[in-house]
Amino acid sequence: MGDMIEDNETIEEFLARHAVDVEEAVRKAAAQEIMPRWRRLADHEIDRKSGPHDLVTDADRQAELYLTEALRGLLPGSVVVGEEAVHANPASYEGIRGRAPVWIVDPVDGTRQFVNGDTGFCTLVALALGGVVHASWTFAPVREELATAVRGQGAFLDGVRLNAGSPEPGRDLRVATSHPDFMTDDQKRSLLGLRTDGVAPRACGSAGLEYLAVARGESDATAFCWEAAWDHAAGLLLVEEAGGAHLTRAGEPFRITGGNDLPFTAARDEATARRVTGLLAAGA
User: Fold this and answer.
1) Do 21 and 113 share a domain, yes or no?
2) Is 6 a member of any domain?
3) Of 16, 17, 63, 76, which one has the greatest count of Cβ atoms within 10 A?
4) Is 21 marked within a binding site?
5) Looking at the DSSP assignment, which residues form a beta bridge with residue 46?
6) At which positions is Mg(2+) bound (predicted)?
């Protein structure tokens, strides 16, 4: 790999030395900034961004600040693209397309579930370079589950290797889909393609946990209509390294740098990904 991190260190060498430090930072952010606020949020700690389903809390903001400082400290010269920082300064999203290593952070993925006191939320961190995701961390603090992946080295849940496997023949495909509130009319038509015999679509929860469900074989696929890299980067690598695949409606792998033909899917295997994208294209 032509890009070096520091002192001629490659990103693989950095991960070999510091993956455990990233894990510690993720766990500490959850322990110090997220869990003390779970089921204890006051009204003034919750704000709405683009609409009633797009929430942000003090837990999101403070956990992202914690992770931003910790991750930059681990990898000098890196940049952080976090959901809340981008909301405050949309231009900062361009860091994903830059030349520096980039940490892609969603401090609380599933904020609506978090606000409601549900357990279905997680913290997502991915490390990318040149548009390629090299490592990811998905931490569900209430469930005390940590899923990790390093490109070319497999996906793991609490240290046990994940194998997405393939859907059981003859059973309906379990597909988690985007919420209609966040779709264009064209995307809604695409998703209608999933309303067919042999497919059981349902509304998704936390994107990060939906990817984990695919990587562990509990769900068969996703069908998502938005590109925000903090929701997808960690989970897409997790699914890939568990043996799965991801494809856009155009039949190409999803690019975290954007410009994808949406909707796209992440699925337990290549055949399922092609089946889902075929249905999405037919719906359009």
Assistant:
1) yes
2) no
3) 63
4) no
5) 57
6) 83, 106, 109, 231
